# Entry
Amino acid sequence: MINLLPNEVKENIVFARRNTKLRHWIMVFAISIAGVLIITLFGLFYIQQNIDNYNSQISKTQDELNSQKLDATQKQVQDISNSLKLVVQVLSREVLFSKLIKQVAVAIPSNAVLTNLQISKTTGGIDLTAATTDYNTATQVQVNLQDPANKIFDKADIINISCGKATAGNTVTAKYPCTVTIRAQFAKTNPFLFINNGAKQ
# Structure
């Protein structure tokens, strides 16, 4: 078939077809952009809604915790914990007096008598006072108390020794005119404490 249409008409037909295809692609592109915008806006709306819901839940949870006085409860728990630690520290320095006195009595020389005990909870030690027949016996008290075989003290230091004349009518000073005061530090494995570093009771 021979196309006898003028060239101008032929060109118009070609351009018309091209314009139709171009309009078609422009519409497709516009619809795609509109779809992307709709999806984006919906996504942003959904995300914002979730953020608002989470913020609302967080605020509600915080209000519930505040109503339950969580801070006050935590403070009470901490106070109880601190009290328990203090109890353990105090018990670790408490002495089983019945056993301790017996062991000290064994360590005291025959010419001396124990007259006073004073526990120092802050230093983990004890001050002992003994009456003795003479000065040498007073020093022997210190030597005996510091002896590792007694398992009582790591160290014992003489604070004071005084010897006076026998007092008439006072049987103690008449027989034991000397007085010695000793400050002793409990051994770490002392078996006469409620709690210690592994010593067996």
